[in-house]
Design a protein that fits this description.
One of its GO terms (cellular component) is plasma membrane. The protein is built from 6 helices and no strands. It is mostly helical.
């Protein structure tokens, strides 16, 4: 289970880095192309979040939250996944939206994903890298929402830098999960 999650995090990380590099290298790209790239990225991230939200969780109820263990994080991932899909589809279907509208969509998406990642970092594995990804997403999202008229160049760079950093951190989280998974296998084999 952890290996599959690590694999999905790794793919999300690679896609984020590729998207970020493209946004930084070609910041003068038209709003339509940026909307399409962002839409595809948001859809892939939304699907990844929904996959984690619908997988079954076993275990007793958590006495603090009242949820079955893992239900709270599943709800957070489900919400983040649905928001990612909706925003991604909107960006792909209506790529001709203005830069300000696109900026607001990107900002809202980043804040929701950031909140979800922070929630997951405190409730599950992923540790500091997931918490840092979440905090970075919230900061980038708020910056974009506060200054949506900053222009396509600033938005492209902000999105690009965020995507590169979060992509690298996602790959670190995938690496940590892979080693956590292999460490459990070794401990089980020793017993």
């Amino acid at each position: 289970m952890l290996k599959r999650e690590a694999w999905l995090l790794g793919i999300r990380g690679v896609l984020a880095v590729v998207f970020g590099v493209l946004a930084v290298i070609w910041p003068g790209v038209t709003v339509i192309a940026l909307a399409l790239l962002f839409g595809i990225f948001a859809i892939v991230t939304g699907i990844e979040q929904l996959i984690h939200a619908i997988r079954p969780t076993a275990g007793p109820s958590n006495p603090v939250t009242g949820f079955a263990d893992g239900t709270g994080p599943r709800i957070a991932r489900g919400i983040a996944g649905l928001v990612g899909l909706v925003v991604g589809v909107m960006a792909v279907v209506w790529p001709g939206v203005t830069a300000v509208t696109l900026a607001i969509l990107v900002g809202v998406w980043a804040v929701v994903i950031g909140l979800s990642d922070l929630w997951l970092a405190t409730r599950q594995h992923g540790g500091w890298s997931m918490a840092l990804i979440g905090a970075l997403a919230i900061v980038a999202g708020l910056f974009i929402m506060i200054r949506p008229a900053a222009g396509a160049l600033a938005i492209a760079w902000t999105i690009g830098v965020y995507a590169i950093i979060s992509g690298v951190l996602l790959m670190v989280a995938a690496y940590q999960l892979t080693h956590q998974s292999s460490g459990r296998g070794r401990m089980a084999a020793a017993h």
